[in-house]
Amino acid sequence: RGSVPVCVCVCVSGDLSLYLRQSEQRGDLLQPVCFVLLVLCSVLLYFIISLMDPGYVTADEELSQDSATSQAAAEGEKEPMIPGEQKTLRLRRCGYCLIQQPMRAKHCHTCQHCVRRYDHHCPWIENCVGERNHRLFVLYLALQLFILLWGFHIAWSGFSPAITWNDWLRLNAFLLMAFVLISVCLAVVLLLLVSHLYLVSNNTTTWEFMSRHRISYLKHCSTEENPFDQGIVKNLCTFFCVWKTIAWENIYFRNETNLV
Question: Which residue among 61, 144, 242, 250 is buried most deeply as judged by most CB within 10 Å?
Answer without folding.
Answer: 144
